[in-house]
Amino acid sequence: QVLLVESGGGSVQPGGSLRLSCAASGSIFRVNVMGWYRQAPGKQRELVAYITGGGNTNYVDSVKGRFTIARDNAKNTLYLQMNSLKPEDTAVYYCNLEGTDGSGHRFASWGQGTQVTVSS
User: Fold this and answer.
1) Predicted confidence (pLDDT) at residue 28 exceeds the cutoff of 90
2) 115 — phi, psi (to 5°)?
3) Cβ burial, residue 2 (10 Å; 0-12/13-18/19+)
4) pLDDT greater than 90 at residue 76
5) How many helices (H) and strands (E) does the chain have?
6) Is 22 exposed, middle or buried (0-12, 13-18, 19+ CB in 10 A)?
7) What are the phi and psi torsion angles at 13 (to 5°)?
8) Of 49, 1, 52, 55, which Cα lies nearest the Cα of 26?
C-alpha cells in the first residue's frame, strides 16, 4: 500500500505563492510518474504538472512559467511551487503517483487533496 499525504495548501491573495508537498510512504518497486492534479468546483479534474522517472517535466499551459514541479527522491517527496497565483488557480490539489510493483503490475495512488484558495 502506498500512502500519499499532501500539505501546504491555504488561502493567499492574487500574486502570492504557495508550495505544496506530497509525502509518499509504502513499498514502491518503481515510480513511473508523479504529478499534481487539481479540481475546481464545477470543473473536471485536470492534470497540472508531472515529472517522470527520468526527470522530465510537463505543465498545463495555464500554469507554465508560474508553477514548478520537483521531487526529492531521498525523502520520497513531491513538490509544487506555485508563484504568481491567480484566482483561477483556486482548487483542491491532489498528488498522484503511478508506479510498478514487484510483480510488474502498474498501479496508481492518490492523496486526500489540499485546498488552495486565491482571492482578494
Assistant:
1) no
2) -80, 130
3) middle
4) no
5) 0, 11
6) buried
7) -85, 155
8) 1
